[in-house]
Structures are given as C-alpha cells and as structure tokens.
Amino acid sequence: MTKIVYNSRYGGFSLSKAAILRYAELKGITLYQRIDDRFKAFGDRFANWYLDEACTKLWPDRGINRADPVLVKVVEELGPAANGAYAELCIADVPAGTRYRIDEYDGNEAVMTVEDYEWSIA
C-alpha cells in the first residue's frame, strides 16, 4: 500500500508551522523566516517560510508530493497538530501501482482511483 496525504476539509491543503519545521528537519532543508513589516502586528501567522539560501521561494505547501514518505511520517507523528489553517489532513491507503489523483473542490480533497469514475465509451 502507498499512503497519500490529502485535506478532508474545505479551505485547502496546508501544513502547520510545526509540520513545516518537522518536514524540513527530516528532509534536511534549511528554512529562513521573513515576516513582512505590514503583518508584524498579526504575529507569526503571516510569516513567509523560504526554502533556499537566496530566500527566493515561498514554502510550497501545495507543491509537496502527497505520497512523500516524509510527509506521511510528519502527518502520522503530529496528528491534528500537522493541520495548517483550515486544513484537516488525512491519509488514504492506495494499493501500490494504482493510478490515482487528488480531486479538489474549494480546498476539500478526495483521493480518487480509476475505479472511482464512471467512464463513457466513444
């Protein structure tokens, strides 16, 4: 079985600060924090996380491979503490070698396989 992380709540996939830090630690990624001056009054919630030494890339929550074993480990370790804003992360088990995709509507996601769709014949 392959484990796939998805968001089961409206709002969108995102990781908490604790999950980002743990993911980076396990992957050996150096993170740099920058808080935009106009958001300082709102605190850490608006911090931008950067991945590289040049500080040019925003943290790519949505760009992470959802089958990444490190991401799965982080979500399993932290449980609900891995959830970012408006997220409720879950793990689906998909048989190895199965074609799947993550369907999304307003941030609420579902892991779907070929067998989950009705197909028309041309």
Features:
122 residues; alpha+beta; two-stranded antiparallel sheet; 17% helix
Please outline the helices and strands.
Blueprint: E1 2-7, H1 17-27, E2 32-34, E3 48-50, H2 69-78, E4 89-94, E5 100-105, E6 108-113
Antiparallel strand pairs: 1-4, 2-3, 5-6
Helix pairs in contact: 1-2
Question: pLDDT below 50 for ≥5 consecutive residues: which ranges?
Answer: 38-43, 50-58
Rg from Cα:
16 Å
The oligomeric state is single chain
Give a quick account of the main beta sheet: strands, pairing sense, barrel closure: 2 strands, antiparallel
How many β-strands, per DSSP? 6
* Percent in helix: 10-25%
Structural class: alpha+beta
Count of separate structural domains: 1
Instruction: Trace the largest sheet across and list its strands.
Output: 1-4
